[in-house]
């Protein structure tokens, strides 16, 4: 989890970096609490911790292979190709819409119609056009050592005013409704001016992004060879730049996090196939969650279920934040499941038995943890903010997919197909350190080692 969260430090956006560092520190603090404070409290409780049992529960030790999850894992292992194909088809179908994802930043037009900001947005759009909610700002600096009177500054600013069609009729420049300026910082000692530009399109429209790119190119040409320093900004342009920056660094973060997780799992399990399988499965499950998010929030399928009044583009930083959190959670589940399988493999060297009993003894904990996380994430859907809804819904769906299709269907099937080769580690990599994350585990008893787990 910490490795995944620290991947956000690769993105040169202070807010994203702060989010990643703060979350990583929070996880680290909880880790130390789990290793120190929790054992102390359990020591105080002693045997009294089991004094009260939930109704329907008893102290009888169940045979793992005969439990629901034991029988389920046996079924997946005895038909590995069917399980693999069925699970893969479901994930691919869910992930397919991700190829059509449109990044952007929701504006007040995506808010519920009952909110005052949505009412104001609609009134301004109806009265002045869509572009009034997507203003652009151009700041131009003149020679600060030689302040000019405003009329003299106007002459020097002629190339910029022409490039922006300042005070010209609508349509003089494609995509510009009107352009106001230059507005000086001082009438008699002008060293800087601003222009206010209203596009003909809304904040999230592709036309607005194209306009920003054209105006920046025009400004660069207009100020070339002059002492003028012009920059186009404003909230709309800033959000466009932020989206482009996140899209640029998203593959870098994904690559770095996956590589780091692969190396750590390889050192922990002394295997090549196990970490490779984990990386691929986690990427596919997250892509499937992205696909579901696109279907609901971008395409509007069943959007009423999450209380969404309008379709919205996918907020650019949400897939980035979702990836690091979900990849970390998936790796937590992976380590928990695979460490148990590795213990059983070391004790029995029976691939089928290690898979079935590994799933049977960890599935209840994994599914319980997943249900808790889903309840937390689904609570975000109650927020009126579409962005908060998107984050909560996306992460809840991702946890659901990972803890069911991936962890309980695909992993047993793939490990059964790998067989003993899953734990192969090349001798030429034996110099690498072995990270023993749990120390020497309890011995697997003969009774457990001899439990039948279905037909070979």
Measured between the Cα atoms of the first and last residue, the distance is: 37 Å
CATH class of the largest domain: Mainly Alpha
Q: How many separate structural domains?
A: 3
Question: Strand order within the widest sheet?
Answer: 3-4-2-5
Low-confidence stretches: none
* Radius of gyration from the alpha-carbon trace, in angstroms: 29 Å
Helix content: 55-70%
Strand share of the residues? 5-15%
CATH topology term of the largest domain: Multidrug efflux transporter AcrB transmembrane fold
Give the helices and strands as they follow along the chain: HHHHEHEHHEEHEHHEHHHH
Tell me the CATH superfamily of the largest domain.
Multidrug efflux transporter AcrB transmembrane domain
Secondary-structure topology with pairs:
Layout: H1 2-6, H2 14-45, H3 68-78, H4 80-95, E1 103-104, H5 116-128, E2 136-141, H6 150-156, H7 158-164, E3 176-184, E4 192-199, H8 206-222, E5 229-233, H9 235-269, H10 273-298, E6 314-315, H11 317-348, H12 351-379, H13 386-418, H14 446-449
Parallel strand pairs: 1-6
Antiparallel strand pairs: 2-4, 2-5, 3-4
What does this structure look like?
- It is found in: Cell membrane.
- InterPro entries: MMPL_dom, Mycobact_MmpL.
- This protein is of the alpha+beta class.
- The protein has 3 domains: 9-38; 63-108 and 271-449, Multidrug efflux transporter AcrB transmembrane domain (Multidrug efflux transporter AcrB transmembrane fold, Up-down Bundle); 136-233, 2-Layer Sandwich (Alpha-Beta Plaits).
- Helix content is 59%, strand content 7%.
- It has 14 helices and 6 strands.
- It has helices spanning 2-6, 14-45, 68-78, 80-95, 116-128, 150-156, 158-164, 206-222, 235-269, 273-298, 317-348, 351-379, 386-418, 446-449; strands at residues 103-104, 136-141, 176-184, 192-199, 229-233, 314-315.
- The strands form 2 sheets. It has a 4-stranded antiparallel beta sheet with strand order 3-4-2-5. The chain has a two-stranded parallel ribbon with strand order 1-6.
- Strand 3 (176-184) and strand 4 (192-199) form a beta hairpin.
- The longest helix is centred in the middle third of the chain and has 35 residues, at 235-269.
- The mean pLDDT is 85.
């Amino acid at each position: 989890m910490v490795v995944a969260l620290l991947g956000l430090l690769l993105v040169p956006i202070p807010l994203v970096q702060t989010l990643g560092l703060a979350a990583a520190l929070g996880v680290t603090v909880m880790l130390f609490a789990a290793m120190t404070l929790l054992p102390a409290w359990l020591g105080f409780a002693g045997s009294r911790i089991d004094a009260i049992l939930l109704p329907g529960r008893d102290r009888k030790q169940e045979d793992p292979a005969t439990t629901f999850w034991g029988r389920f894992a046996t079924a997946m292992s005895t038909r590995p190709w069917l399980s693999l194909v069925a699970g893969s088809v479901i994930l691919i179908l869910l992930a397919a819409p991700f190829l059509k994802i449109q990044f952007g930043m929701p504006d007040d037009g995506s808010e519920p119609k009952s909110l005052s900001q949505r009412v104001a947005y609609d009134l301004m759009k109806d009265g002045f056009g869509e572009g009034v909610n997507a203003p652009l700002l151009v700041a131009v600096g003149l020679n600060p050592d030689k302040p000019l009177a405003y009329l003299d500054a106007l002459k020097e600013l002629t190339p910029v005013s022409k490039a922006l069609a300042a005070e010209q009729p609508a349509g003089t420049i494609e995509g510009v409704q009107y352009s106001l300026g230059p507005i000086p910082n001082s009438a008699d000692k002008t060293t800087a001016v601003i222009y206010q530009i209203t596009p003909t399109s809304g904040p999230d429209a592709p036309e607005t992004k194209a306009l920003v790119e054209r105006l920046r190119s025009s400004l660069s040409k207009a100020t070339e060879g002059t002492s003028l320093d012009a920059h186009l900004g404003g909230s709309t342009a800033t959000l466009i730049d932020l989206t482009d920056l996140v899209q640029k660094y998203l593959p870098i973060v994904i690559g770095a996090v996956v590589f780091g997780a692969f190396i750590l799992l390889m050192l922990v399990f002394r295997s090549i196939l196990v970490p490779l399988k984990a990386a691929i499965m986690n990427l596919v499950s997250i892509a499937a969650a992205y696909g579901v998010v696109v279907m609901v929030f971008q395409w509007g399928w069943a959007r009423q279920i999450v209380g969404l009044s309008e379709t919205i583009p996918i907020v650019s930083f949400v897939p980035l934040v979702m990836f690091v959190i979900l990849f970390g959670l998936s790796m937590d589940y992976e380590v928990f499941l695979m460490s148990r399988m590795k213990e059983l493999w070391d004790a029995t060297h029976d691939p089928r038995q290690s898979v079935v009993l590994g799933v049977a003894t960890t599935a209840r904990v994994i599914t319980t943890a997943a249900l808790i996380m889903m309840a937390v994430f689904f609570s975000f859907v109650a927020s009126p903010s579409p962005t908060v809804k998107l984050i909560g819904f996306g992460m809840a769906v991702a946890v659901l997919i990972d803890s069911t299709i991936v962890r309980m269907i695909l992993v047993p099937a793939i490990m059964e197909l790998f067989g003993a080769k899953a734990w192969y580690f090349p001798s030429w990599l034996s110099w690498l350190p072995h990270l023993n994350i749990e120390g020497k585990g309890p011995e697997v008893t003969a009774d457990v080692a001899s439990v039948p787990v279905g037909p070979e």
